[in-house]
Each structure stands twice: as C-alpha cells, then as structure tokens.
Amino acid sequence: MTFIDSEHRDGIAFLYLNRGKVNALNGELVEELREALRAAETSNAVVLSGRGKFFSFGFDIPELLSFSREDFTQFVTRFTDLYTELFTFSRPVVAALNGHAIAGGCMLALACDARVMVAGGGKISLNEIGFGSSVFAGSAEMLRFAVGGAMATEVLYSGAMYGAEDAKRIGLAQEIAEGGELLACATRLAADLGSRDRRAFTSMKSLLRGPVAEEMRRREKSWIPQFVDIWYSPSTWARLQEIKIR
Fold first, then answer.
1. CATH homologous superfamily of 4-194
2. pTM across the whole model
3. What is the DSSP code string of the chain?
C-alpha cells in the first residue's frame, strides 16, 4: 500500500495513515484504509494512528478543488462509506491521535470505539463552519453518539479546536497519554477490549451502534447533495481556495 502502513503484533492490527506531512485524505488513501480494515477483520483489535505530527488534517482540499462536481460527489460518498464501515467494524478500534485530527480526520477518529490523545499535543475539531462548509449527516450522528446532542451543537456551531483535556471532558477523547506513551496506552486499551469474548463484543457493539448506523445510512444519501451544494457555493469556494497544505 502507498498511504497506509500496517503491522500486526500480538493479535492487534496497527494501521497508520502515511500521506505527506499532514496525512491529508484523498481517494487513494480512503480506498487503502478500507482494504486494510477488511484485512484486519480477523485481528482481536485495531489501533489506528498517523505517521508524523498529524493524525490527519482532513480532506486534501487543493487536490479536491480540481475535481468535477460528479467526481467530488463520488469521493465524499466513498469517504462516508468508509467511516460508516469503521463505525460498525466488528472488532474494537482505538484511535491513537498522534497530532491534530481535523475535519475529515476527526470524523475517522469519531468512528472508532475510543480515542487516545497526546497530552499538550494536537487538537481535535470539526471546524468546517470556519471555512463555510457543512459536515455529513453521518458525522453529525457519530458526534451525537460520542458527546450527546447539546455538546454536539456546541462543537459544530463553534468549530472550536479542543486540546486533550477539554476533549476528554466532553467525550471526544477517552484517554490522555504523554507523547512517548501514546501508542502503548492505545495498545493496552485495544488489547483489553480485544480480550472480550468475540461474539459477545460484536453483539453489544451492534446493539449500541447499529441503530445509529441505520440513521447514518438513511440520512447520508439525501444529505450529500446538500453538502456538495454548499461546497460549490461562491462564498465557500472562495474560502477553500485559500487553504494550503504544506
């Protein structure tokens, strides 16, 4: 694979986003991550992290600006399919947030069973409102599932960037680790969840997340055209042009 590094140790699959300095999401990375997840189906648990100083900046906006409206719609449909698959993945998935998890990167993190953040390190945010974009129906459902309705409203309306302490306070993170202990902490959590009886865990995860996923799928198809309309609106398009990835 080009943009996903994977390794397996002690029954745990470790998947690392590895695309440039900020692990920006494009079509190839999305498809590779789906492929890597499916290959990890027989593992006891999965740890999802990023290489470098970012978990993920989110979409590779400069690349996506060159897409036709049809191609962009296909991309966002594949991306929402990915996070829904991650949200309902049969095995426990722990996100080890090695740095910023922004916008689409935050959505991937929300799809995991638990999130571990670096103390004093990166921020987590659904900051789309800041550049005039909306979010996907499924991402709003995952956010509500994680933090509750009232806090989800605050997160989305403010576009705030949450450090580890605030993220844990509101439910965006479950654990905080020092930088050098991040992966070890995430691994311990994944191993603990992965040690549960497989059938029982899968059943309970389905019980908890199945109704949310049904709502995600129900609303997503009709919501994506509205998201695309906002993306291509003159004011949002102008702001997107100003976003650079270095």
1. 2-enoyl-CoA Hydratase; Chain A, domain 1 (3.90.226.10)
2. 0.97
3. --SEEEEEETTEEEEEE-STTTT-B-HHHHHHHHHHHHHTTTSSEEEEEESTTEEE--B-HHHHTTS-HHHHHHHHHHHHHHHHHHHT-SS-EEEEE-SEEETHHHHHHHTSSEEEEETTS--EE--GGGGT----HHHHHHHHHHH-HHHHHHHHHH-PPB-HHHHHHHTS-SEEE-GGGHHHHHHHHHHHHHTS-HHHHHHHHHHHHHHHHHHHHHHHHHHHHHHHHHHTSHHHHHHHHT----
